[in-house]
Design brief:
Isoleucyl-tRNA Synthetase, Domain 1; about 325 residues; 3 domains; alpha/beta; globular; 8 strands; about 15% strand
């Protein structure tokens, strides 16, 4: 992930005001410090099995399956907002603390990550992860309420994804709205406070609290329903996948731009025209030309019976 998006590990040495970070960043920083405190206590009490389980659960569920997914769009080479650096800093903050905790358990893996990402011959850093100090938990960075709300949000997203599967709505297809009928104030507050994260992870334009009647999914804390699939945007996502596959087959890296040609029927061309900015962003295109096919690399897509010819040149 870090290599693919060419994230800058030197940002770990930059001073950031974490109080101004986005909530997903503050959550994982809080969770990291909570985990450091618990992990250290387990080691001090010789509870190695609990320590290993805690660290593994954090890496898999909190860091990899959750946080990495929440920042994927912010790590894009074409994302230029100021919070991109904040996401990169947070990524390396967590990773650096993780490998220091991991060092006694998995010395070779932690050393390899340290040398490849953090050390790189820097004379101001220890030459080995095993010469680094043990991480200390910073209570000032722990937000127990945010951690609690994020855990509720994870349950909501898991339920929304389950309902998508039941209704045969692919995860990559955006929906107009997801409505949550909360059975308690804690669920309602979590939805209201973490609206942006919910929309990103739920692939929806809007998350709201209200009444649901039919085609709903119950979860611990309430139930939810899906709005309509945004068909044109879903179509663009499907087509983008075809272009990305061809990019990968031809060895293009994520930062290399292309000029894209597309030929299809008039109605489908209209969709491409209306959503050209989104398509450009998805596939790394500087220019899209409709009506004919050119380029050194060509292929075809078949999406719900729509035949699309396309080609591109690397710029």
């Amino acid at each position: 992930f870090i290599d693919m998006y060419e994230a800058d590990a030197s940002l770990i040495d930059k001073n950031f005001d974490i109080k101004g970070f986005k909530k997903e960043d503050k959550y994982i920083i809080s969770k990291t410090n909570s985990m450091i405190k618990q992990f250290t206590a387990h080691l001090d009490n010789f509870e190695l099995n609990f320590a290993g389980r805690l660290l593994g659960d954090f890496i898999l569920n909190d860091f990899s399956r959750w946080y990495i997914k929440t920042i994927r769009s912010r790590m894009s080479p074409w994302y230029e907002e100021p919070d991109k650096e904040e996401a990169q800093f947070t990524l390396f903050y967590v990773l650096e603390n993780l490998i220091r905790l991991l060092a006694p358990i998995s010395p070779f893996v932690s050393e390899k990550i340290y040398q490849k990402i953090f050390y790189k011959g820097d004379s101001n850093k220890p030459v080995s992860i095993h010469l680094s100090s043990w991480p200390e938990s910073n209570d000032g960075l722990i937000d127990a309420e945010l951690e609690k709300q994020t855990e509720i949000v994870k349950i909501i997203i898991e339920s929304a994804n389950s309902l998508r599967q039941e209704q045969k709505v692919k995860l990559k297809w955006p929906v107009s709205e997801i409505v949550v009928e909360a059975s308690g104030e804690d669920v309602k507050k979590s939805v209201e406070n973490l609206q942006e994260i919910l929309c990103e992870m739920g692939n929806t334009k809007k998350f709201s609290v209200g009444k649901v009647s039919k085609n709903c999914k119950e979860f611990e804390g309430g139930k939810l329903s899906l709005g309509d699939v945004l068909e044109d945007e879903a179509f663009i996502r499907e087509f983008s996948r075809y272009v990305q596959i061809l990019r990968k087959e031809k060895g293009l890296n994520i930062r290399e731009k292309i000029k894209l040609w597309i030929k299809t029927d008039a109605k489908t061309e209209e969709i491409f025209g209306n959503l050209s900015d989104e398509l450009k962003y998805n596939v790394g295109a500087d220019e899209i030309i409709l009506g004919n096919v050119s380029g050194s690399e060509k292929s075809e897509a078949d999406i719900n019976g729509n035949k699309i010819q396309f080609g591109f040149d690397k710029l």
